[in-house]
Design brief:
Elements lengths: L7 H23 L4 H39 L5 H30 L11 H14 L7 H7 L5 H5 L6 H22 L1 H26 L2 H15 L2 H6 L1 H24 L4 H18 L6 H12 L3 H10 L6 H15 L10 H14 L9 H12 L5 H5 L4 H26 L5 H5 L10
Helix pairs in contact: 1-9, 1-12, 2-7, 2-8, 2-9, 2-14, 3-11, 3-14, 3-15, 3-16, 3-19, 7-8, 11-15, 11-19, 12-13, 12-19, 13-14, 13-19, 14-19, 15-16, 15-17, 15-19, 16-17
């Protein structure tokens, strides 16, 4: 297809469809737990997991050069505050609304106080979660905030902590601010540093392009794995929870489109231009892995300026993820609260859940397990039992696909809103049918 110059997005979605069909065939013939399926998927995962690993390999370097590079691209330093405030404000505001939507979905599907079946896998998961919660249960919100601050930036650049991403963002922001100060007093040194960062950025983005060319193969392998190993019985038993989750996430996406309408951006054009990166996020289940495509889509297809796109994509990895840190923990809190005698219909308690979810959304890493980490923090802060996180393990991959797509969409919407506010948005790029990321693939 590539030799025939078929569009990149078409190749990606073809791979997605083929992966679903092939995975379903394996599921029907052998079953999810069969040894043949297990061994086959272990080999297929070399391509799928290997592709995601290559993308994750780029995350810390990309976050660093993106944030610092954004400072060097600022034509007027006064825009820095407006960009940062608008991006973070949009991410947090939409997360608060996403939490409300999650709670509303629980009420609509009558899941408040619901109980789920606990099998061997769920029991093992609950025990593992109990150990993991020990790392976060004693942290107060102020202590959580302090944990974002890097104490050893080299350790955080290697991603050793759950809050390493936001720590690198903070460190990069300090370097960027320092650059602005130096550039003002010593333009020659500032110019040299800007050229150095620009060179690093081009090198990193070139590596990104090389890796992104593997996207159709990676998505093919990832979809084979998801479809072939899904527990159909568990999905059926937890079907109501899955439906409620997708219902909530669909409403959040509609909220994103309404925001775009408010800032006078065509939502249909947005969906068309962002379909490739949203499709990748859906299949890979990694907001961090989708970051390179996120930046490419914002700048080359949606018309967001470079500085804002880099800020939005980087901050979106660790702040206010609508799906993983908004809808999901709010739903779990609303479901489990009645089981311990709490009136979840109380407006004050609903506002409490929303506030805790929004504050806790800081520092949630955009990699696998981010939603679990966020849920443990929220449930622990509200003194609610954490067992429910383990009880839904069977359908976690299925729900996580949509959650990740919503996370990425939110960061792109934040970029568009911010670029519009600072008057740097290029409508011509958004409306240009040829302005798509295929040009670099």
């Amino acid at each position: 297809m590539q030799k025939k110059h078929v569009k990149f997005s078409t190749r990606v979605f073809t791979a997605l469809a083929v992966g679903i069909v092939f995975g379903a065939i394996i599921q029907v013939i052998f079953g999810a737990q069969n040894d043949v399926t297990t061994q086959a998927i272990s080999w297929v995962s070399i391509v799928g997991n290997g592709y995601v690993s290559l993308l994750q390999m780029l995350i810390m370097p990309l976050v660093f050069v993106s944030i610092v590079g954004a400072f060097t691209k600022l034509e007027v330093s006064k825009k820095l505050g407006k960009i940062s405030f608008t991006v973070i404000g949009t991410l947090l505001a939409t997360t608060a609304v996403a939490a409300l939507i999650g709670i509303f979905s629980v009420f609509v599907f009558n899941l408040d106080g619901a109980t789920f079946v606990q099998g061997e896998a769920e029991t093992a998961r609950i025990e593992a979660l109990a150990e993991r919660q020990e790392a976060v249960k004693d942290l107060t919100i102020p202590e959580q905030v302090v944990s974002f601050i890097p104490t050893n930036v080299f350790s955080d650049l290697s991603g050793t902590r759950s809050t390493s991403t936001i720590a690198v963002v903070i460190f990069s922001a300090f370097i960027g601010i320092a650059y602005l100060g130096v550039n003002k007093k010593d333009p020659e040194t500032g110019e040299f540093f800007a050229k150095l960062i620009n060179s690093l950025y081009k090198i990193v983005m070139r590596i990104v392009t090389l890796v992104l060319r593997l996207t159709p193969y990676g998505i093919l392998a990832l979809m084979i794995k998801v479809t072939a190993t899904s527990d159909v019985k568990a999905i059926w038993n937890l079907g109501k929870f899955v439906a409620a989750s997708y219902f909530a996430l669909a409403i959040v996406l509609i909220m994103h489109l309404l925001i775009l309408v408010f800032v006078k951006v065509n939502p249909l054009q947005y969906l068309k231009k962002s379909s490739t990166v949203l499709g990748f996020a859906f299949t890979s289940r990694s907001s961090a892995g989708a970051m390179p495509l996120n930046i490419e889509t914002q700048t080359k297809a949606l018309g967001v300026d470079d500085a804002t796109a880099n800020f939005a994509a980087s901050f979106g990895l660790s702040i206010g993820q609508n799906g993983c840190a908004g809808v999901y923990p709010a739903m779990l809190a609303a479901i489990v609260a009645p089981t311990v005698g709490i009136d979840v219909f109380s407006p004050l308690y609903i506002l409490t859940i929303v506030a805790v979810v929004t504050i806790s959304s800081f520092g949630v890493a955009g990699v696998g397990g981010g939603a679990t980490f966020a849920s443990l923090i929220v449930l622990g802060s509200l003194n609610l039992p954490i067992a429910i996180v383990g009880l839904v393990i069977s359908v976690e991959p299925l729900i996580d696909m949509a959650r990740t797509a919503i996370n990425v969409s939110d960061s792109m919407v934040a970029g568009i809103v911010t670029s519009k506010r600072i008057n740097e948005f290029n409508s011509d790029v958004l409306n240009d049918k040829d302005a798509v990321i295929e040009s670099s693939m």
